[in-house]
Amino acid sequence: MEGYLTALSDGDAAKALDLSKSPASELLLTDDILKQQQEIAKISDISIVDVQKMGEMATVQATYQFGDRKADESFVLHKTGDSWRLDEGVVAVDISSLGGIPGLTAFGVPVDGEAKVYVFPGPVKWGSADENFAVVNGKEKDFPVAGTSYGSFPDLTAELSGKGQNAVNTAVQAHLDECALSVQVDAATDKPDCGQRTYAYNAEPGSAKWTAPAQLPALDYRLGYDNPEEVSVDGEMEWSVTFRTTASGSRPAETKTETVTDYLYGTVDLAQNPPVFTPEG
Predict the structure, then answer these.
(1) What's the distance, CA 238 to chain centroid?
(2) Residue 154, preceding bond cis, omega within 30 degrees?
(3) Helical (H) or strand (E) element with 180
(4) Do residues 210 and 191 touch, judged by C-beta distance below 8 A?
(5) Residue 147 and residue 89: Cα distance in Å, rounded?
(6) What is the per-residue pLDDT across 128-149, written as a single tens digit (0 to 9) for each?
(7) Which residues of 191-215 are buried (b: 16+ CB within 10 A; e: fewer)?
(8) How far is CA 260 from the centre of its chain?
(9) In what helix (H) or strand (E) does residue 33 lie, and over which residues does it extend?
(10) What distance in Å separates the CA atoms of residue 168 and residue 241, rounded to the nearest whole number?
């Protein structure tokens, strides 16, 4: 038991596995990954508190420091030949319900499509192979301090990474720049996908010059439930428009400049290259 915990602390995956019942997969049970786990939360101050032996089975109680957490765990071991092995030396992590995270990785290793992966006790670095997304672990500090077969269920959600937000903003800006080419005070007249307009009944047709927002405001992003790469975007946009009025009676024609607020709503498809904003509503 002490040898197993020491092997974990030393980053010796082969020794820890040799003292454990064989798991279904060793994909994430490597020295490199174990050392990464120990860099985040180190096992130290190992103490064997109690041993209860019953023939070919034993229960061992051990205490140890695991990062900033104090562990007090009981382990079941069985004897095979002259060797004792832990029944549960690794943690079975159920990721079968995490299909909504594009390109899910653990310690940089692709695990997309896996129903269950196995790791040594300790924290797991989750991520995405898709640079447009980041993965947030709601149980980052609540990691298993001992092996378990009944399953660990991570609380993972995907969100846009900085690169993903930039990609969405670039697609939105391209849409706004296109809308700025309208020459009508109601942009939808010559740019059907655009919504900015000012209620100037006496505007001279074709005289409008639109200026798109100089800087995008804070936008709200929501990943698609069925397809995270379809990102819903909304926010208020402040436009500037200059136009000429028509002469009427004693009122001469003049040039006016107005500020217009338009509410933008639509989706950006990050699967396209480059991503494209499609307005809705």
Answers:
(1) 30
(2) no
(3) none
(4) no
(5) 5
(6) 999 999 999 998 989 999 998 7
(7) beebbbbbebeebeeebbebebbee
(8) 35
(9) helix 31-40
(10) 25
